[in-house]
Structures are given as C-alpha cells and as structure tokens.
Amino acid sequence: MTPKTATGVKAASAFDTPMRSERLSDKVAAQIQQMIRSNELQAGDKLPPERELCERMGVSRTVIREAVRSLAAKGLLDVRAGGGTVVLAPSPSLVSEMMTMMLHGRARPGGANARDPVLFSHVQEVRRHLEVEIAGMAAARRTDADLTEMRKHLEQMKASEHEPELWAQSDVAFHAVIAQASRNPLYPVLLGSISDMLMEVRLTGIRLRGTPNRALRHHKNILERITAKDGPGARQAMLDHLSESEDTYRKARAAAAR
C-alpha cells in the first residue's frame, strides 16, 4: 500500500509531470480524477498544498487552480477556506444531476428536450433496455416492503387521474421503486437521470383520452408479474407498457399539432 504524507494524500510518486501537448489543467485534472477512481486518493484525503503540487507536477499555480476548480465543479473536490482541498465521494444524486444536465443540453443555447424527436427516440431506446432488465431483476429480488410501495403509488395514480402533475409524479415513483427493488444501486441513478424528460413524456401523453386507464392496466400487470417473482413475465409486461407509452406520446404530440 502506498503511504500517505502528512497532508493526508498518498505518496508523492503518484503525481507525474503531465505532457505539455495538451491543455495542462485538463491533464492535471484527469490525473487527479484517475487517482480518485483507482483509490490512490480516497474520500476525506487532502490534496497537498498548491506549492507542493506545482513542484511535483511541474506546472504553475494557475494550472493547479484551474484543475482543482474543474474537479470541484464535478463534485469530486471540496475547496474549504482555511481547510485545504478535500476529496469527496461522488454521490448517486450528483451523477444523476450531471446526466440530466447533459441530456437537457443546459450547457449550450437552445438545448434539446423531450420535444426533440431525435432525443426522444434516443431516450426511449435507452429506457427499453434499462427498464425491461430492471423489471426482471426486481421480480427476483423484491421484498414485501417494495411491493407495498408499488401498490401505494398505483393507488395514487388511480386517485389522481384528473391531476396530471400528481399522476405523473406517482407514475415516476412507481418505476423508481421497481429500480430500487432490483437491488442494484446503479439502476435508480441511471433511471433518475432521465426522469425529468420522462415526466414531460407523461404530461404530454396524459392529454390523450384514456391514457390513465391504459397506464394503470399496464402497471398492474407489471406489479402482478413482479409479485409472482416471474422474471420473464415482468420483462414482457414492462416491454408492453413501454411500447404502449411510446405510441401514446406520439399520438398525443400529433393531436396537439393539429
């Protein structure tokens, strides 16, 4: 195991002088980020002082500061006034937020959203692969508490069919519980990263007559298969639901455009 220095970071040899053929701050940031991924730097470790980093990596303080700022913006470092720079553990909520920002294109003017037919197609394609497998895993791993939560959200959907926002929120929550029931912590993060866009899809689809009843019927079928621990049946039920949902969204968009 590589020893830590007095500042809390692993041995000085972990830092190498970055190549100068690329933007130095990006190279430094990538090197520190790789050290975090490989656990050479762990949550709670402090980075050495700026002067020490400059000497080790052969770059200026400006380069170090730019690299630290970019990693702090990603939520990987915490720059504390008078307390140094501390390594943070990436949280699922942070990963989800970053993926959502990427999908919505907030970093550029006129970013795409669920109304963009190309992006909608991409999101739905990912959703099919993701949620169908989630349903199968949930059928194998769900607990009685998971089933209770799913039933609760179905009841909320049934009671709020004339309140689009609440209905859509209950729909999202139902799918979120299924992801949690998979017992794979990555599934809720991945599904959560597109939940904002899927909310828009649901709020568009509910404008089409009969949508709440159709959705509820499909959700009940999914719940029945998960309750029965029928993995193949749960996957098929989810696939049927997503196919119907996509068709509903397209019809609702077409109706609104007329």
Report on the structure:
With 258 residues, the chain is mainly alpha-helical. The protein has eleven helices and two strands, in the order H-H-H-E-E-H-H-H-H-H-H-H-H. The chain has a two-stranded antiparallel ribbon with strand order 1-2. Helix 5 crosses helix 7. The N and C termini lie far apart (67 Å). About 6% of the residues have low confidence.
| Radius of gyration, in angstroms, nearest whole number | 23 Å
Percent in helix = 55-70%
Strand order of the largest sheet: 1-2
* Overall mean confidence score, pLDDT: 85
Query: Helix and strand string, N-terminal first?
Result: HHHEEHHHHHHHH
**Envelope shape:** elongated
Describe the oligomeric state of these chains in a short phrase: single chain
Q: In angstroms, what separates the terminal alpha carbons? A: 67 Å
Structural class: mainly alpha
Q: Sheet bearing the most strands, described?
A: 2 strands, antiparallel
Q: What are the segments in which pLDDT stays under 50 over at least 5 consecutive residues?
A: 5-12, 106-112
The total count of helices amounts to: 11
How many strands appear in the DSSP assignment? Answer: 2
Measured by DSSP, the beta-strand proportion falls in: under 5%
